User: Fold this.
Amino acid sequence: MADRITAPKLRLMKERGQSIVCVTAYDVFFAQAADEAGIDVILVGDSLGNVVLGYETTVPVEIGDVLHHLRAVRRGVQRAHLVADLPFGSYHVSTEQAIENAILLMKAGADAVKLEGDYPDTIRAMTKAGIPVWGHVGFTPQAVNTFGGFKVQGRGDAGSTVLAEAQSIDAAGVCAIVLELIPAALSAQITQSVASPTIGIGGGIECDGQIQVMHDILGLTNKIHKHAKPYIDGRSLVLDAFKTYTQEVRERKFPTEENSF
Ligand code: KIV
Assistant:
């Protein structure tokens, strides 16, 4: 328990210049592995819509989907700070709606919730209710239809809007801010101008920490994103294992005596 990463500890890490390592997870096995590896923050992201449920965007994800995966992840995490995404439509209608859904996530085991965009009043109200809130600016995937695709945000003059949004949610009391797909120089400027730790995904090296979708760093998808780096070719490993298993069953080489009773 003493070891657990809390929202105040994340701020301390920023102050001490310790880089904050974050990854997404959606089930107990990968949550345990990430926690055991010493990753500081695990996010049950609404990216589960893309990588687990097979949707093209995060827009169709429901609060029930996040709750289902969050409960599984909670059972695998002991040390890491566990954040859960509020999906599209779960906090946009009213502050009351946002707080009700955030409470569901906290009761299911989240240590904090995350929402996208400039919602300072909602953030203040949640914080007042005892719910630590993460923010997310730059490319915010739930607004993909407004952006017209998966595009870098904040280039040129548009940078001042992203900076203003980050400052607005920082002042409202977020405990960390995800900076997604924005120029590295803008991330550096935001990082210096806010008290909360900044966590980059396609935000350059000067953020206070980094987050990646687990499928991207494990090479489990066939899409290669510029902002990501596959550390293993997980897709090939899995395919090879399935093919070898298939072959051995067809050729009656598995199970052997060793696997039989
Ligand atoms: O849903 C998610 O995985 C996220 C990360 C991309 C930060 O929000």
